[in-house]
Write a structure and sequence with these properties.
mainly beta; Jelly Rolls; 7-stranded antiparallel beta sheet
């Protein structure tokens, strides 16, 4: 899938195609970032992974790698995976549960097979760009197995970040964000109340839906700009969607590999720390190999566009 064609539009809905990338052992559909849409609120990265068959010993198979300036939000709709990080966390996540890892100044983690689960793995990996107050802070990790759910017309809704219709997630994220799973309870229409100061994106994981006449299927991102106070979704009975929302970023972020920053100098410093293994990212207790990558592209091509983002992000 590519983004070479102009986006389709319908009643202020912009429909954009994801593109394929490889993360660890899996091919993913990358909905964010892309050339025409870098972020939705502070959500700056969205990878739909799976469905894929995994075994007790082989799953995501993403070795230790670093992050700065972001929070990773992992949400599964099928299966299980094992998270390990440089804080000492070791956590199996199952479908319907949430992992949030805060990078701040620096953290490293790995995503592995569980050692016991065999079956289908499917979900979405998201990044939240941290603001100036938080992006230089300490790393953190939390796992939440009990999240607010509500029935909303034709959909069961799980709020994993922020608040919707009075249901608030306990996840420790910044204000001005929304992350929701909508799972169809049958063919029908669900109407959601929105905040006019939020922009929104809808990512289809399974099945099909329609948003203001725009047909939404896996591999598509529907973007809705500021100013809406309501969203009507027509759902097929097998549809599972992710709704993302938030206030637009106050300033553009600079993304390369697994780092979210504000300048090339910050990226250079983080990359050099990872290569030198100087303690900034500490170590992860993982049998998988530590991931390396080539230096930032501007070191070889200093005139390159500074807004670039590597497609080799390891989530």
């Amino acid at each position: 899938m590519t983004t070479s064609e102009p986006p389709a539009t319908s009643d202020s809905v912009e429909l954009l195609a994801s593109h394929e990338a490889r993360v660890g052992a899996l091919l993913v559909r990358r909905a964010l970032p892309q050339r025409r849409r870098r972020s939705v609120g502070a959500w700056c990265f969205a990878d739909h992974m799976g469905p894929a068959d995994v075994t007790e010993e082989h799953g995501l198979d993403i070795g230790p790698h670093p992050h700065t300036g972001l929070q990773t939000v992992t949400w599964l709709i099928d299966g299980q995976a094992l998270h390990r990080d440089s804080l000492g966390s070791e956590q199996v996540i199952e479908a319907g549960e949430l992992n949030v890892m805060t990078a701040g100044f620096g953290v490293a983690h790995a995503e592995e097979a569980t050692g016991h689960y065999r079956g289908v793995l499917q979900g979405i990996q998201l990044w939240i760009a941290q603001d100036e107050e938080r992006r230089h802070g300490a790393a953190d990790f939390e796992h939440l197995a009990d999240l607010p759910r509500l029935d909303l017309d034709a959909a069961q809704v799980t709020v994993f970040v922020g608040e919707l219709h009075g249901a608030r997630s306990p996840a420790r994220t910044a204000e001005g964000l929304l992350g929701v799973e909508l799972r169809a309870r049958g063919r029908g229409t669900s109407v959601l109340s929105l905040r006019p100061d939020f922009e929104y994106g809808v990512v289809a994981l399974t099945g099909r839906a329609r948003l203001n006449g725009a047909d939404l299927a896996p591999g598509a991102l529907a973007y809705c700009p500021l100013g809406r106070d309501e969203m009507s979704l027509d759902l097929d009975d097998d549809a599972t969607l992710i709704l993302l929302g938030g206030t637009p970023l106050a300033e553009p972020v600079f993304m390369w590999w697994n780092f979210v920053a504000r300048s090339r100098a910050e990226i250079d410093a983080a990359y050099d720390s990872w290569v030198a293994d100087d303690g900034r990212f500490q170590s992860v207790s993982s049998a998988l190999a530590r991931i390396a990558t080539a230096p930032p592209y501007w070191r070889a091509r200093p005139r390159a566009d500074s807004a670039g983002h590597s497609s080799s992000s390891t989530a």
